[in-house]
Amino acid sequence: MTGLLFSTTAPAAQADAEDTEKLVIMGTTDIHAYMMPYDYMNDTVDDTYGLTKVHTLVEEIRSEHENTLLLDNGDIIQGSIFGDMLALVDPVGADEPHVIMDAMNMMGYDAATLGNHEFNFGLDYLDETIAKADFPWLSANVYNDGTEDLRYDPYAIIEKVINGETLNVGVIGLVPPQIMTWDRVHLDGNVYVNEIVESAKTYVPQMKEEGADIVVAVAHSGINPAEDASENAGYQLSQVEGIDAMILGHQHNVFPGTDAYSGIDGIDVEAGTVNGVPTVMPGAWGSHLGVIELDLTNTDGQWEVAGFDSEARETAAYEPHPDMVSLVEETHEATIEYVNSPVGDTATDLNTFFSRVMDNEVVQLVNDAQLDYMEQNFASTEYEDMAMLSAAAPFRAGRGGAYTNVEEGSIAIRDVNDIYVYPNTLHVVKVNGTELHNWLERSAENFLQIDPDSSDRQYVINTDFASFDFDTIEGVEYQIDVTQPVGERIVGLTYEGEDVTEEDEFLVATNNYRAGGGGAHIDGVETVLASTDENREVIIDYIRDHDGPLEVEVTNNWSLVPFETDAQVVFESDLQGEPLADTTPFVSFVETVNDTTGLFQIHPQEHVEDGDDEDEDDRPGNRPPHAGQPGPPPHAGQPGPPPHAN
């Protein structure tokens, strides 16, 4: 058999039930260690997600259907503080049970695919963890470095006996090749990764040769119809001959059932098909369960698909499964205790409501802590007299409606995790003036270009650009001209009052993701320190070492170039920012957008006038650029990945 016959015009309801057998494929993705319906950041129950709730739904479906498969699409061991507990805070030993694997074993998964975040804690931890699973972990495009040997099983063929006939279901796993950038510190020299579609074209025919009657692609990848899509290659994967159903993820979207992919040729957002292939993308954190029902016929030993139905089912209405609750409860309670343990005090409110339009306390704190760490570590070394800078971004600044919001008073571990979401490690890179300028130009893609001559309302934030890619660099002064096109926005870049030139060299504290090229800000620069210290721990130590309540003082070392316009230049942010707008010189509240979101206006022509008493001519950006100042870089490409490393 060379493949199955699919018809997008023949849904399951049109198939004759007397002549068909049903196979129900269930899929999870991007659980990110959210076992319980609990928001550890805010220390509160959240009934909209959790693998314990998914388990209840899975059992319901199994009670209704005789023939089922349960598959996971990766990113399950990292993402919440629950996962950090097992890997970093109180690490699980190689010979100890891993509660997430125990939970998956309890649910009876048939197979799982490695996601990009599975690699965040290193290969040893990953391999020790998945060895405790009672089911295969798959990846058809990760190879041992220097060989042609796959590191993991590329696929599994699962035998199902349906009405006395054997159905062989082939399941192939695939991961974005960008893990070589995002987790270079763990992977470089150990593995290499091929492209998703190329690998599928290699192994799907092998699966067919080995007797797979149907093939399910479980790809930790989203959907991008661009011809050269690599990270989110689900659209192109659907065109690989022999793939009969797909479980996608990585983008944290829901498919079918939302408009995220509407209007794309070949995608039916209602039927749940991509180029005719039934497909699901079940959100994140266990918010949904992907369900693909295949109606199969068997004629002379050959299976064909007579109809199908694709659905992403919400789990919010389901109760957590009591058996799994009992299983994870000890770690869950330990996590709650840990996140509420005190670190110190702050005399400053720390939030990211306006962090994408102005210098910000949260980013300032991260940069202050990283600079302090770097200065201490480079004291009495060859680097101690070099110019030291720090780069940080607002990680929780709008994606999924999430913002950092730590109020004045006591700071707990959960607050630091709210400030710095990811388990990155601190790295220091050496850059010259041109590379620094290019880094900032890439970050300036955070903004849409404003036409000051237009009187129409204009949005200033590029919401397609991830907030974790909006690095601001402490230690230099510069302005961003949002009236200019991409690559021509950074002006007045100075260090200690002198224009930055190509010959200047700087040490910049950042994280392993950015140092490895993540986000396309820098490429091929020298890493002079690749520490194993987490950026979060650096922040915790900085707060703990502070004498008395922490007072974060924003340096305002960067700002938007003032411009005059009759247009209303606006951005959306959390409604909680409305009172803050009353005390912010160049931001005002406009109107309520919905229950959680407000519309705010910036008045950049007022920023210089009202910000402080400094002479306007002496501000960064108001001096003419030095003749040797680096020019703009080429376009740096599209925004980087969803949360991983920044």
From TrEMBL:
Tell me where in or outside the cell this protein is found.
Cell envelope
In which residue ranges is the amino acid composition biased (Pro residues)? 630-646
The 5'-Nucleotidase C-terminal domain sits at 344-519
Recorded catalytic reaction(s): these are: a ribonucleoside 3'-phosphate + H2O = a ribonucleoside + phosphate; a nucleoside 2',3'-cyclic phosphate + H2O = a nucleoside 3'-phosphate + H(+)
Compositionally biased region (Acidic residues): 609-618
Keyword terms, alphabetized:
Hydrolase, Metal-binding, Multifunctional enzyme, Nucleotide-binding, Signal
Superkingdom classification of source:
Bacteria
Per its UniProt record, what Pfam families does this chain match? 5_nucleotid_C (PF02872), Metallophos (PF00149)
Q: What is its main location?
A: other
Residues of the Calcineurin-like phosphoesterase domain: 25-253
InterPro entries, per the entry: 5'-Nucleotdase_C, 5'-Nucleotdase_C_sf, 5'-Nucleotdase_CS, 5_nucleotidase/apyrase, Calcineurin-like_PHP, CpdB_N, Metallo-depent_PP-like
Residue ranges for the region (Disordered) are 599-646
Q: Provide the cofactor list for this protein.
A: a divalent metal cation
Its cellular-component GO annotations read: outer membrane-bounded periplasmic space
Q: Which family does it belong to?
A: Belongs to the 5'-nucleotidase family.
Q: What is this protein called?
A: Bifunctional 2',3'-cyclic-nucleotide 2'-phosphodiesterase/3'-nucleotidase
Tell me what organism the protein belongs to.
Alteribacter keqinensis
**Organism lineage string:** Bacteria, Bacillati, Bacillota, Bacilli, Bacillales
